[in-house]
Automatic annotation (TrEMBL):
GO cellular component: cytosol
Domain Peptidase M1 leukotriene A4 hydrolase/aminopeptidase C-terminal span(s) in chain numbering: 424-581
GO biological process: proteolysis
Pfam families from the UniProt entry: Leuk-A4-hydro_C, Peptidase_M1, Peptidase_M1_N
Subcellular location: Cytoplasm
Name of the featured protein: Aminopeptidase N
SMART domains per record: Leuk-A4-hydro_C
PANTHER family per UniProt: LEUKOTRIENE A-4 HYDROLASE
């Protein structure tokens, strides 16, 4: 037995899946998918085939002739789920599993009409990263293995499905529609993604359209109008875009992330709709994953920094190309703040603050933090600074060319980099980033004129002249840098002058609410409570619940808000908030 990924039952001595044929009927009444998954293996090999599953109700397994195959579904383990072991006879390389998903499938969120923008139709979406695909399809749920797939979804005729794949056709039969998709590029299972709801779309450019509920479509199209310029900027930095289309899907508010890089169809939180395009760095980030993550993929969650650190680096290069180095530096400074906070948060688990993690027995959702993002970014910046930008750009291109449509480990990254940039890893003390906790003293520090101006105003009430050119990112940085002991008068004056409690920019609003409540300025408490009922994005729920839970007076406000809204949060978000409240 050789299990190379601590989060999968996949045994690397067994044959790999080459293609998946997936058929599912979406039943909103019972909150189940009634489905059939046909796996075609790269080669036939008699013996056991181990698949990952979670909460699947397995109805039967047959070979390509329809003959039943023996299988054993093991009792679930806490993080991995249940191993489905199928005994393959000589010569069989295709098998079909008939099953249905659980209403509690960890990758799916079923929304009632009242949880959508339109309020009339239900909505369903998937979120498979890191190890939730197994709750939707029985498969080898490790990013070491890439599959091509075809899929067909049967949905109520009044609804539209979308998938992170190429649309083939829609047929209507009776009260249902069947929609067919094809994914010609091989992808790791965590990139399987779909959504069903009242969805319409608008063209944004030759390779992009945005999907949203009709009520939200125009605002989304305005916010993301610049996506084609972003694609062009990214291509000029990282080479041709390999996924043909870059469509966007505006999610309902309970989507737990800012964005998810589902290939051909990035999922985005509606909290990005600020009205002024100020949060589109998230789009740049998900687009950058088209190279770093989707094309060159981490071999397991233990090497997650290879996805996210490279992507943050690429995101800031795109930002720099489109908006200039000052803007990129502001984002790097925000990143450094969030890194320091995460290091503090994980101080009791220093081993989780190294880039290369060891996660046997650890749930990737619980290990998730900004560390792989921002410490990974700093390592790549340090390397870039050490060898110079032109050399580093060449390195990046060769890295992408060498590992495209493959997965790699941190150790392979080290070997490759050592060969390409001899001595560079030692020069920046890469081992300290990769294998040791914390951040090296020598790590690059973002510097810029705008950052220095902000630093001078720290803890003060800036004048209208100071703030007249501020972008929302500067407001966010200013607010996140407020000393904990800032007097309440400063907060009162700030709100009176700049109406921060009324901010439409979700990043500014959350930075304001957290800073104010942390300092004991309670006037925006009502807005905080209200906001906890408007969004489900973990990046906002976690700090808001944490700051409320850390004060004796506000703990009951936090509990009451969770009581009221918890059922509407995504299961992953609910779990995160529960943990915060349990520790309070
Ligand atoms: N791939 C991640 C989201 C993710 C990570 C989902 C791990 C599940 C498990 C996505 O690309 C991401 O990083 N989103 C960020 C965007 C930000 C860094 C610009 C987010 O959601 O905030
Ligand atoms: Zn990412």
């Amino acid at each position: 037995m050789a299990r190379l990924d601590p989060h999968s039952y996949n045994d690397s001595t067994q044959p790999e899946t080459e293609t998946l044929d997936w058929k599912a009927r979406v039943d909103f009444r019972t909150r189940r998918l009634h489905a059939e998954a046909t796996l075609t293996l790269k080669e036939a090999s008699a013996g056991p085939l181990d698949l990952d599953t979670r909460d699947l109700d397995i109805r039967g397994v047959v070979d390509d002739q329809g003959r039943p195959l023996p299988y054993i579904l093991s009792p679930p383990e806490p993080i991995l789920g249940s191993r489905l072991r199928i005994e393959l006879p000589e010569g069989v390389k295709q098998l079909t599993v008939r099953y249905r998903t659980s209403p509690e499938a960890s990758a799916l969120q079923w929304l009632t009409p009242s949880q959508t923008a339109g309020g009339q139709q239900p909505f369903l979406f998937s979120q498979c990263q890191a190890i939730h695909a197994r709750s939707v399809v029985p498969l080898q749920d490790t990013p070491r293995i890439r599959i091509r797939y075809r899929a067909s979804l049967r949905v109520p005729k009044g609804l539209k499905s979308v998938m992170a794949a190429s649309f083939v056709a829609r047929e209507e039969h009776g009260v249902e529609a069947e929609e067919h998709y094809e994914m010609p590029q091989p992808v790791p299972p965590y990139l399987l993604a779909f959504a069903v709801g009242s969805l319409t779309s608008k063209e944004l450019g030759p390779r992009s359209r945005v999907w949203a509920e009709p009520e939200a479509l125009e605002d989304a199209a305005d916010e993301f109008a610049g996506v084609d310029d972003m694609l062009k900027a990214a291509e000029s930095l990282f080479g041709p875009y390999d996924w043909e289309r870059f469509d966007l899907l505006l999610m309902p508010p309970s989507f737990p992330y800012g964005g998810m890089e589902n290939p051909r169809l990035t999922f985005l939180t509606p909290t990005l709709i600020a009205g002024d395009k100020s949060l589109v760095n998230v789009v740049a980030h998900e687009l950058a994953h088209s190279w770093t993550g989707n094309l060159v993929t981490n071999a397991s969650a233990e090497h997650f920094w290879l996805n996210e650190g490279f992507t943050v680096f690429a995101e800031r290069r795109i930002l720099e190309a489109l908006a200039g180095p000052e803007v990129a530096a502001l984002h790097a400074a925000l990143g450094r703040r969030s890194l320091d906070e995460a290091l503090h948060h994980f101080r009791a688990h220093p081993q989780l603050t190294a880039l290369r993690t060891h996660l046997s027995g650890v749930d990737p959702d619980e290990a998730f933090s900004q560390i792989p993002y921002e410490k990974g970014y700093l390592l790549l910046r340090a390397l870039e600074d050490a060898v110079g930008r032109p050399t580093f750009d060449g390195f990046l291109r060769r890295y992408l060319a060498k590992y495209r449509f493959q997965a790699l480990t941190t150790e392979e990254f080290v070997r490759f980099t050592e060969g390409e940039l001899p001595g560079a890893l030692a020069k920046v003390d890469a081992d300290a980033y990769l294998n040791r906790p914390g951040v090296p003293e020598s790590a690059p520090r973002p510097t810029s004129a705008r950052l220095e101006a902000l630093e001078r105003l720290r803890g003060k009430v800036p004048s209208q002249a100071d703030t007249k050119d501020w972008t929302p990112t500067e407001w966010q940085l200013f607010l996140e840098s407020m000393p904990v002991d800032t007097s309440k008068d400063v907060f009162r004056e700030l709100d009176a002058k700049y109406a921060l409690t009324g901010s439409r920019n979700s990043e500014v609003l959350v930075a304001w609410l957290v800073a104010a409540l942390r300092a004991g300025f309670d006037a925006p408490l009502g807005r905080a409570e209200e906001f906890l009922g408007e969004v489900g994005r973990m990046k906002y729920l976690k700090p808001l619940y944490s700051v409320l839970a850390s004060s004796r007076d506000h703990r009951k406000v936090a509990r009451a808000a969770f009581e009221k809204h918890g059922a509407r949060y995504h299961p992953i978000a609910r779990q995160g908030v529960e943990l915060i409240l349990a520790r309070a």
